[in-house]
Amino acid sequence: MAFDPLTGGRYRDQTAASDNWLPDHRARIAQEESERLERKQQELLQQTSGRSTPAERIRIWERRHGLTLPRDANHRIVNIIAHQTELAVDQVREEQQRRLARINGEAAVVVTDDPDRAA
Fold it and tell me: What's phi and psi for 9, nearest 5 deg?
């Protein structure tokens, strides 16, 4: 028991009461960290998944890194994005073209050697 100087009386031991929240707090923090790591792992899998479109993969990459796809097709980060999303550099450049066309209010026309990938 500790002495309460304001009332001149005694009150119950606060150290015993305050010690009870610590394990719960630590467990909650550990659970939140585990969930954060799980979300990060899921995003990483989606970023390289064949089920995700190139646009989705690039948006995931942008969100994870806090960056946007540069407009310059020759920007050196284009190769990094392609590598980390497991896309071909041409696929990243196609997404750049689509975005620029959308900004300019144009129809996206993507020139490609592969007729199956023509937009």
Answer: -110, -175
What is the tens place of the pLDDT at every residue in 60-91?
999 999 999 999 999 999 999 999 999 999 99
Token pair of 21 as six digits: 């929240």
Q: Which of 23, 100, 87, 21 is nearest to 49 (CA)?
A: 87
CB-hemisphere CA count at 13 Å for 28?
Answer: 5
Distance set, CA 16 to CA 12, 19, 70, 76 (Å): 9, 5, 57, 59
Within 13 Å, how many C-alpha atoms sit on residue 84's CB side? 14
Beta bridge partners of 11: 2
The residue with tokens 């799980």 is 38
